[in-house]
Amino acid sequence: NAGVTQTPKFQVLKTGQSMTLQCAQDMNHEYMSWYRQDPGMGLRLIHYSVGAGITDQGEVPNGYNVSRSTTEDFPLRLLSAAPSQTSVYFCASNRPNTEAFFGQGTRLTVV
Amino acid sequence: AQTVTQSQPEMSVQEAETVTLSCTYDTSESDYYLFWYKQPPSRQMILVIRQEAYKQQNATENRFSVNFQKAAKSFSLKISDSQLGDAAMYFCAYGDDKIIFGKGTRLHILP
Description:
The complex is a heterodimer. Chain A is mainly beta. Chain A is 0% helix and 52% strand. The mean pLDDT of chain A is 96. Chains A and B meet through β4, β5 and β9 of A and β6, β10 and β11 of B.
């Protein structure tokens, strides 16, 4: 039982490049979410999903795409990376009305 | 939209003393959950305590307890007998179909 697994742990991108952050959970949780953490800003919700095939925007969705084709996976796509997307990204999963379980985070630097 | 406000960016407490971290939130929902998470330097997100909004009784977990005031939309965390290992960022969070976080309070423990 691995919980929530994020890959990669570290990534450096050049401005304009695209990439996908992977997130997988093996707890059969219905809900999955992506957050970014910046100094002094806490964790801000990017996108979330309440089930396979269902996604919705969070507080800071611009520049990011998501899809949820299976219960287990919830990838986050950066279509054209910008320096403002330099951050630590967390994926989380939970059952309805319960606490979220988090991955270890991905530190992304865009140069 | 739901919001979570933590008005204390940093706090310090002497070892073995008691400290209270403040949190207020805003929502029009009647059924929701509230959480406190701890984030040590390892970046791992650790659930400290959770509170169901329909329960009047304040949640407790060993040295951690909350003061939940639903009408005032307040959810403070009390840490008793503070220990050096309690030093971390603490995040207050609100949950319904998504989980929203405050900006955090950095807690320092003074030996």
